[in-house]
Specification:
The chain has six helices and 17 strands. By secondary structure, the chain is α+β, with helices and mostly antiparallel strands. It has two domains: 135 residues, Diaminopimelate Epimerase, Chain A, domain 1, CATH 3.10.310; 103 residues, Diaminopimelate Epimerase, Chain A, domain 1, CATH 3.10.310.10. It has a 17-stranded mixed β-sheet that branches. Strand 4 and strand 5 form a beta hairpin. The chain starts with a helix and ends with a helix.
Length: 277
């Protein structure tokens, strides 16, 4: 932090359908993200504010990505942030395909044309150990009220299928299940309504964040859950509070396609960084 405290710390602000991120580029300079830094930057009054924080570093592929939630906890996956950063790296490199690495594993991104970006979020995990759940059970319908479906996209998800997703008081519903005893690492919570066999309406409560306008990994998990339950096919549009994503569950993984926005670039000033010590 010392070098940053003296010279400031550059950042980028991006969003995918209103799901917003602060991004640090650590490929040229060493950047250490601490829980204190993540929490301070997340403060929408005293910092910049974000749903997730992302760090780009050099890796065995084109780049390695790491993520943090607004409460300072580590996020194993973040689909919309991956897509936003992929768009930035595609434009920077002039490539039409990228190999990215995360703690989730290898992810691949392609230019989908017209400024849109597709990311393969990997093969979904549906075994109880992989999510993880606290004990062995069928993940298709969990033994809790509403019989939600559990999925891991590198991070845990709990998806409820309801008559009207917009009628759910998500600010009360979400935290009740984020901290449910079945999920020892907490969970993201989705409520979804089926509009057509290829169309869902979904809203999300993100673990460590709260209600967000969109979530890429949640969209992937919801699509997988709907297809597993026979409610939809494996390719669909998901309408979120902030816009729509196209999800395609293929043999090689769950592909997510949509728009991104690179909003601004700036520098966290030395005074702000020194206040964290």
């Amino acid at each position: 932090m010392d070098n940053e405290s003296e010279n400031g710390l550059p950042f980028m602000k991006m969003h995918g359908l209103g799901n917003d991120f602060v991004v640090f580029d650590g490929r040229v300079r060493d950047i250490k993200v601490t829980p204190a830094l993540a929490q301070a930057v997340a403060d929408r009054h005293r910092g910049i504010g974000y749903d997730q924080l992302a760090l780009i570093e050099n890796g065995p592929g084109d780049a390695h990505l790491s993520f943090w939630n607004a409460d300072g906890s580590v996020a194993q996956a973040c689909g919309n942030a991956t897509r936003c950063i992929a768009r930035y790296l595609l434009d920077e490199s002039g490539k039409d395909r990228l190999h990215l690495t995360t703690v989730r594993g290898d992810l691949f991104a392609v230019d989908a044309g017209q400024g849109r970006t597709s990311v393969n979020m990997g093969v979904p995990m549906t075994e109880w150990r992989d999510i993880p759940l606290a004990e062995a059970m069928d993940t298709l319908e969990l033994p809790i009220e509403g019989a939600p479906t559990a999925t891991s996209m590198g991070n845990p998800h709990c998806t409820f299928f309801v008559e009207d997703a917009e009628a759910v008081a998500l600010d009360r519903f979400g935290p009740r299940y984020e901290h449910h005893p079945l999920f020892p690492e907490r969970t993201n919570v989705q409520v979804a309504s089926v509009i057509a066999p290829d169309h869902l309406r979904m809203r999300v409560w993100e673990r460590g964040v709260g209600v967000t306008l969109a979530s890429g990994s949640s969209s992937c998990a919801t699509a997988v859950s709907a297809a597993r339950r026979g409610l939809t096919g494996r390719k669909m549009r998901i309408d979120l509070d902030g816009g729509s994503l196209e999800i395609d569950w293929r043999d090689d993984g769950v592909w997510m396609t949509g728009d991104t926005m690179h909003v601004a670039e700036g520098v966290f000033r030395p005074q702000f960084l020194r206040s964290l010590t």
